[in-house]
Amino acid sequence: MDDDNSVPTSATHPAPCPGTSPRWGRRPGAVRAGALGAALLTVAAGTLLACTAHAAPLGPALRADTNRDGEITPADDLGKDTWTRGRGALMLPNVDDDQRRCPTAGPAGTRLRDDRLAACHDAADTVVNGRADLADLAPAQIAADPRAVAGTTATVTAAPASRDHVGIFAERHGRMVRLGPGDRLTTRELRHGVCLGIEARDFVRDPKKWNGFADLVLRVDRGGHTAEDRVRLRVAPLVFEHDLMPMRRMMTADHTTEPAQVERGKRYDPSAQPRPTRSGEAVFRHDLRRGLDRAGLTAPLYNYPTGDDVWMQDLFKTAYASIPAPGGREHRVTVLLRSADVMPGTATRAFPLRDASRSAFPLLRGPGTGVLQQYDPRRVGSKDSQYYGSFSSTGNFGTLPPHTWRGHRYPVGRVVYGGNGGKESPDTSFLRMLTAQGYQRPIALDTSWLGVGHIDEFLSFVRARNARGWVAVVSDPDLGEKLLSGLVRHGQGGRPLVRGIAPKDTADPGLTIAGALRKPSLTRGTDIARRGIDAALRTLRVRAGLTERDIVRVPALFDVIDLPAGYPRHDVVANYLPGASNGVSTGTGVYLAPRQHAPAAGGGDVFERAAEQALRPTGTRIAWVEDWDYAHHLGTVGGEVHCATNALRGHAGTRPWWTERD
Asked: At what angle do helices 477-489 and 606-615 cross, to 10 degrees?
């Protein structure tokens, strides 16, 4: 792209400092792939901020928003060349695609490599891609110096350590243009002041390669004399969304469309409901719709082309990055982080990651939204990926909601994931990137005892009327065993364990309640799950101060998985009945949980009634969703409502990540 695409700032008014120009969304409708996602995820409109000609102090004055109030004034001068968690300028990783210029297919519709798909975004070129891209630049300025003598010139560059990681733009002749190391600002420009815009070209991925900081250096030459000024900026971190954020759209898999079709430009409307093709899909969608209506969320299900893949939650994690904007607001870019799950049997060097996660590029990447990937390429073809790869799925990552504990303040919560620090852990480069963000400090919970290894098999979070504002919903195998034992004591032991499902569609046709309590794989599964869950809760008590008041226990039943001989993992378990903790918080007081199919007593399902009673004091209501055929009884282990969905959430009411005090 050439400089003809540079953006005029104004023809008749003072040049607005970049990063604060208005942004306009597009009206949603039946649109080509990418446009509806862009409309859904476009960040809120900003406001104009004039490049005010503040009087310059002696010597050159380079300024950025050091005090994080969304404005640039002399109040930003104090400590501007340093950076602390409480003070220091920020820049946005400009990884969206504001003009939807990024290709999603090659010549004649050939599929692009994963790395080529991910490499395209607004910071990958040297121009400003429209007015929305202008708003993504962090504002900075050189204060006007009317006393600059004729022949005075200046350069603005990034220090060598960060030069390849940032882009510097200047308002010149009414347009924002990229400054190279040798580009010199004129005497006239210095006399009037210069508006600058700064972009980070990426997030921090490996702090050994880049720590996220950029020192901008202004050098002014006056007749052989040189003066210098500096400002330090830090790239905004990748911030995971949490389940208290109100859901805007629930995402479900569309099995009638392959990812390659939308990559090649197939006209696709995510709001158009596809024809159900899988067993149980129709009732699953019906119950989701009913639950969302109950939660006051009327938007249609957002359909996402996956081909055969059911597990929406394992495709990507939704996050964002933000910097201060005027009026105490945040200017954000949404980021979809692809799963680092290198798929056994199908991964190649060109296509290492889950194929269904590629649909995020043509469908959702666009204005205000980027798609990233991070994984260790050495895992392609390795046996470790075959046996332990599922730990890298994004269904194994969640967010402990906002909380304060022992003087630590986490306004956007903390990342939580499953892993034991050994092979039964997520991709190491993915974890290194999360830790390198410096915020939402990750907490690892040992999930090596689970067949799939995902934390959502026993843990989720919902709103609550308590001091924290939320509770952890936790599977309790002891409670499940206790409820079944009570039925046996009341003479009900001969009834089927699984209710409402044809025996042929269960793991053990004919298994009774009493038989379940004697079944070795279930009794041993209960013991393994109890120890694993207790260990996870101990970690959360130590790392986040969780107490029993912050926990809601729901009944569960775990079974030891029968694995083939020679498989390196053993004594791992899965939910025998649908796991009530594997649900989705709408953020509006309704929790979508899988229908339990446990025995009935007193007019209702004993597991469902126990879960409803446990959650009632929190103010959160359960909407039950039938997922037995569609998700629970699928494959060796299966999954539940959370596994088979994903969500786009709103950020209203969230606090800035930079107010965290760790």
From this structure: 130
Gap between the Cα atoms of 246 and 533, Å rounded: 28
In order, the DSSP letters of 607-619 are: HHHHHHHHHGGGT
Which H or E run includes 514?
helix 513-518
Specify the 3-state DSSP secondary structure of 276: coil
Whole-angstrom Cα distance, residue 166 to residue 216? 10
74: left (phi over 0), alpha (psi -120 to 50) or beta: alpha
Give the residue from 640, 492, 645 showing the smallest Cα distance to 556.
Answer: 640
Residues ≥6 apart with Cβ < 8 Å to 453: 388, 390, 391, 396, 418, 419, 424, 447, 572
pLDDT digits (tens, 9 = 90+) for 484-524: 999 999 999 999 999 999 999 999 999 999 999 999 999 99
CA pair distance 227, 550, nearest whole angstrom:
57
Burial of 465 (0-12, 13-18, 19+ CB in 10 A): exposed
What does DSSP say about strands 408-410 and 403-405: parallel, antiparallel, or unpaired? antiparallel
Beta bridge partners of 625: 594
159: alpha, beta or left, given left = phi > 0 and alpha = psi -120 to 50?
Answer: beta
Tally the residues of the chain: 662
The pTM (predicted TM-score) of the whole model is 0.91
Other beta carbons within 10 angstroms of residue 75's beta carbon come to 11
Give per-residue pLDDT as tens, 154-203: 999 999 999 999 999 999 999 999 999 999 999 999 999 999 999 999 99
Identify the DSSP state of 512: B
Q: Over the range 563-589, which residues count as b (16 or more CB within 10 Å of their CB) and which as e? A: eeeeeeeeebbbbbbbbbbbbbbbbeb
Whether the CB-CB separation of 537 and 550 falls below 8 Å is answered with no
Question: How far apart are alpha carbons 526 and 452 in whole angstroms?
Answer: 16
